[in-house]
Amino acid sequence: xxxxxxxxxxxxxxxxxxxxxxxxxxxxxxxxxxxxxxxxxxxxxxxxxxxxxxxxxxx
Length: 59
What we know:
Layout: H1 14-28, H2 34-58
């Protein structure tokens, strides 16, 4: 499993996911391959879920 792949239902913070997204873009030099784009999309989905969960907890 690559370090950029995600596990559904994983419990990573939005900040951790944001760092992984930034690192992916830096490694890619601003142009994502098809495999990197897939990893990016999964990270963004997980990040959005983490943000939503944080808002729900705050409420």
